[in-house]
Amino acid sequence: MDIKQLRYFVAIAELASFTKAAEQLGVAQPAVSMAIKKLETDLGLTLIHRADRNISLTDEGNRLLLHARKIVQSTDDALLEMQELKGFERGEVRVGIPSMLGSYYFPPILMAFRNRFPDISLKVIEGGTWQLQKMLENGELDLGVIVAESLPESLETQRLLQQEMKVVVATDHLFSKKEYVTPAEFFKEELVMFKEGYFHRRIIDKLAEEAGVKANIGFETNLIPLIKSITEQGFGISTMLSMVISDEDQLITRSFEPSIWLDLTIAWRKDSYLSKANQAFLEFVCEQGRDI
């Protein structure tokens, strides 16, 4: 069993295809098949079900996958650290950012980082908090911006900033005359919400559960301009972070009663090697958060 076999095995498991794995790895498909066959022979186990074109792991394959991912990630971390000890100056940062922050908080920070570190490439992945957390744990991301709710022990975090989640309504809505909005009042209205898996939606789902009500969601979209437009025209109300609403928006924001504050953090795997490029990004982003 060697690292190449395990790398091929992980790719096949994640893509459910020998052909796609070979394309991703940049090798010939027969070489991938031979490597996996040898791995199975060396272990004396069948790791992959091969039924027609449907590829799936056996129970033994699923057990090996847990170890293989960790071994491949540790090997990549070790190689990267050794390269940097030789004076490796270029690098890549793979960071996951929720769309609300990616649209309104991070653009100037990302541009400023690129200006200071022009030789470091940035790969920004947009997604929901739960999705980004899983990608971090699987080694698909180096860093991820997530809401500090219930975090697994496998992740290390550093706080970026705190933001209030506000009720957002049209300027002529009844709530515009109120100072605060209770959950009971909020859930009587038709809502414009992000899709499931995004922290914006998770907070509201949790609030509805605590209030013992079912949210009346009329529109679901992750497009912030569309959420604003629907809300401005009075077809529903929504919730957003304070930073998202500007003076140009024809919208009114009100605090919940009690108010809802979110701690936004940047996270990374505890057991991983954080490259110099990632360390530079982490320090830069946290520095911006302290300036707010």
UniProtKB/TrEMBL annotation:
GO CC term (a single one): cytosol
GO MF annotation list: DNA binding; DNA-binding transcription factor activity
Keyword Phosphoprotein belongs to the record: no
Pfam families assigned to the protein according to its UniProt record, in alphabetical order: HTH_1, LysR_substrate
Keyword tags: DNA-binding, Transcription, Transcription regulation
Domain HTH lysR-type: 1-58
Entry's family note: Belongs to the LysR transcriptional regulatory family.
Name this protein carries in UniProt: Transcriptional regulator, LysR family
Organism whose genome encodes this protein: Marinomonas mediterranea (strain ATCC 700492 / JCM 21426 / NBRC 103028 / MMB-1)
